[in-house]
Each structure stands twice: as structure tokens, then as C-alpha cells.
Amino acid sequence: MKINSLPPQPVKQPEAPVCETKLRTENINLFYGKFQALRGVNMEITPCSITAIIGPSGCGKSSLLRLFNRLNDLIPNARVEGKIELDGVNIYERTIDVVELRKRVGMVFQKPNPFPMSIYDNIVFGPKQHGNNNHAELDKIVEKVLRQAALWDEVKDKLQQSALNLSGGQQQRLCIARVLSVEPEVILMDEPCSALDPIATLKIEELMRSLAENYTIVIVTHNMQQAARVSDMAAFMMMAPDRAGELVEYDETSHIFTNPKDKRTEDYITGRFG
Amino acid sequence: MKIKKFGEKIPQSLFFIIALSALSVLALITVFILIEGVPLISKVGVFKFLFGMKWAPSLGQYGIFPMIVGTVFVTTGAIILGVPIALCCSIFLAEFAPKKISNLVRPAIQLLAGIPSVVYGFWGLIFIVPFIRNYMGGPGLSILAGSIILAIMILPTIISISEVSILALPPLLKEGAFALGATHWQTIRGVLLPAAKSGILASIILGIGRAVGETMAVIMVLGNAVALPKSILDPARTLTTNIGIEMGYASGEHQQALFATGIVLLVIIMILNASAQYAIRRK
Questions:
Q1: Minimum-distance CB partner of B180 among A100, A116, A125
Q2: Alpha carbon distance B164, B174 (integer Å)
Q3: Least crowded by CB within 10 Å, which of A114, A136, A150, B181?
Q4: Distances (CA, A) of B167 to B88, B103, B171, B248
Q5: Does ipTM top 0.90?
């Protein structure tokens, strides 16, 4: 199932994983005001793997993803119960520096969201905010991450042009490059291909496979084939009758798609609903 | 079929005519000012009228350069004093203020726009002018006093338009910056403000337009002397106050000269509004 056709990329040496679990959620409940959006989610994500979260619309996939970098903090009235551990440390502890957390856990969004500035400035935005102002180093970072994102050859002659002039697929790869520029450990992807055409989608998927050698990737996707093609592990979520999202089944992708244990998972992946 | 179409046509043309009447008022006023003012400008000479140093209607001398300088100084002062406050306020309202506070501050700022300008002028005359006279020297009636009053008066314009242009940005921009580990302030400075810059620029230009056009409040605190000001503590006269002060007793050529001043004002305001439109559209 794995696609790994990309030429070898200049890779950074992966740091030896501290523990076998990169991300772990323990009994996560998420509330928006009185409405419960997630209930009792438990999952463990291993380092340097791709985990796909699938399920019908509104089942809380994106909400779960946005808990991992605490982007849900931006939503007023959002309240989290339970634990989410990154390398064994609960990221919802009071002492956690959210800015530092988001540096370690990057995110790619559903719609490409390049900043309205040049391609170059988009990439160096992150490193600059974290105190890197050395031009030679920034130049190096730009080339490195654009190569990693398989975008370098297409944009190397127009780095100073506005990022908004790129095509949708290029913009999305730029956003991935931008995330890589701050050297995160985990990359969250919220339906990164839903706004892209099939060719751009394929490129992003290849990119994800090559990135998985060094990064832990969690992807939310509506596209079942995409989950099957790209992920190592898959999590199937569904809405309970009270509309709270629950994790129905979490297993290796091949098991989920060929031999699901839960009837609901089977119904969903065979297209009987959703 | 035909009747239906006819029924559509009536409101269409009715609204068109009424809309046109608003436009025709603008056209009428413009034409009137031009008819009254242009003969004098051509008689005096454009250059002499714009750059003449002496304004003495009784002697037939019409040079408005001191007033152009006065307008530029007072407006520049208002921008220097008002824009930083306005921008900080709009950023605070758009990004930092909890809902409870912004719901309180926003209408208060709108209220600033509703205070009649004569009240601003009166307040300036009673508080600001004596303050400047006592603590900084000069007659008190001065460019500085005018700038302070105008700075306050342009706040609502700049604050509300800037705030709207920041709030109108897609939330994805902010989330994208946050997701890179940027702090809130880094996000505002590095992403949101650059993205909203055209709207912010437009708000400042419209603020300038408001400052250039303001008359009553400025008459009351500016001293209105027709001379080139040497410092910000000197009195001065602006283009608008020139008309406001002398229109009561002007006649003949003198009156035409005031209309000619109006032409200059009209051109300045038109340029400012056009550049604001340009800034908004450029995105």
C-alpha cells in the first residue's frame, strides 16, 4: 500500500524517539459550552508514522486534531477534560508554554493559507519569530524545506513573488514547507487535499510518505482511499446519538480496511453510510 | 409577460432617477463653485493664487499659500497625534479586547463621531487653549490646539475602518501563524497588520480627508491669523476656516475668492477620497 517513489530527500537525522508513543490521549472529553463534541477518546500514536482519522462529517475529527496543538484554545467556551501527552508530558498542564508546543506540533489546514507576502517571507516567518535573523541560514532553510516539500524546482526563480500567485496545490505544499521550517516533531493535517485536484493530491500524498520517515503525521481525511493509501494506522470516529464524537475503532490501516472489528466501521468503509 | 416586465421597470427607473438626484446635487454644487471661483483664479493667475503670500481682499490681493500651509500643518499634526492612538485602539478592539469590553468601547467611539464639532471647538477653547498658553507659551490659539482637536475628531473614522479591516481577515491566517508557534503579538505584527494594510491605509486617508474638511472646531481654536506660522504654537488659518470666517461679509470679487478657495479644497478632498478607494481596491 505504501507509496514511496520520491527520490531521496536531504533528511535530517531523526532523533531517537524518547518513548515508543509520541502522542497519547487519555479519556478526552471536549465541550463547546454545554455541547459535548468528543467523548472518551483514547489513542496512542507512534513516532514517525502516519495516522489517519476518518469518519463522517461532524464526528469531531478536526476537533480532535486541533486538540493536539491546542488550537481549540482560540475558541471561546471550549473546555477539555482528560490528558493529551506529547512524549509523556501532558500538554494541557498549566505550566505548558503553548507557543513552544505549537512549534513542536505544526499544522496544515484544509484550505491552503499562505500569508499575503512573498514565498520567501512565508517560509522564513516562523524561523524569524523564533529569533533566527541570520540571512545565510534563512536562505538555507528556505531551500531545504522547499526541497522537502517538492516545491523548490517550481518556485526557485520566483521566491520574491507573492505566494498568492501560486496554484492551490503549490500553495498547500508551500504551507507544508512553512510548517517544516520551524522543525516540528508532529505535523497535523486537516483534510489537506480537500481543496486540491487529483494530481496535486497525489503529490501531497507522496510528500507525506517521505515526511513520515522523520515526522509523526496525523491526518484528518474524508477520502477513504487516501487514508488507505497513505496511513499506517487509522482511527474511525463516529457521532453518538447525542452528537458527541467517539472513537469507534483504532488499528493498523490494513486491519481497518480489510478486517474491521466493529460493524459500524465496516458499514462506513464499505460505503453503507456517511 | 409584458405586464410583468413593465412592473419590474417602474421601480427600476424610479430608483435610478432618485439615485441620480443625489448625484446631480454633487454636480450642481461643483458646477456652481467652479462658475463662481474659476474667473477669479484666472484673473489672479493660478500660480499667484496658490502660492501668493498675501491675502488682503480689500486691496485685491488673493494669495492662499499661508492657508495651504496652515491646512497641511494642522492636518499633519492631527495625523501624528491621532493615528498611533487610533491604530492601537483598533488593534486592541479587534484582537485583544474581551467581548464585554469591546462591546462597551466600540459604541463609545462611535459616539465620538456624533459629538457636534462646535462642542469640540468650545471644549478646546476652554481647556486646551489656556493649557497651551500657560504651559507652553504663545497665544494658545495655535496649530497645536487645532491638531489636538482634530486628532480626537478623526479617531472614530480611523478606528472603525481599521478594526473592520482587521476583523475581515480570514481566521485561517491567524490560525496558520499560531500553528507555527508565533505568539499573538507576532501574529498581529507579522501577518494580520500586513494583510490588513490596505484597509488601514484607507482609514488613515479618510481621516486626513475629515481633518482637511473640518471647519467649525478649527475656527474656534486656531487663531485664524493669515500669516505663515513659524512654530506649532503660532496661530494659523486653514482653507476651510478662511471660507468660514469671511463668508459673512464677503461680496463681489472677495466672495469669488472664497469660492476659489473652495475649489482648492474640493480638489484636495477628491484626491484623498480617490486614493482611499484605490487603497481599498488594490488588496
A1: A125
A2: 15
A3: A136
A4: 14, 14, 9, 46
A5: no
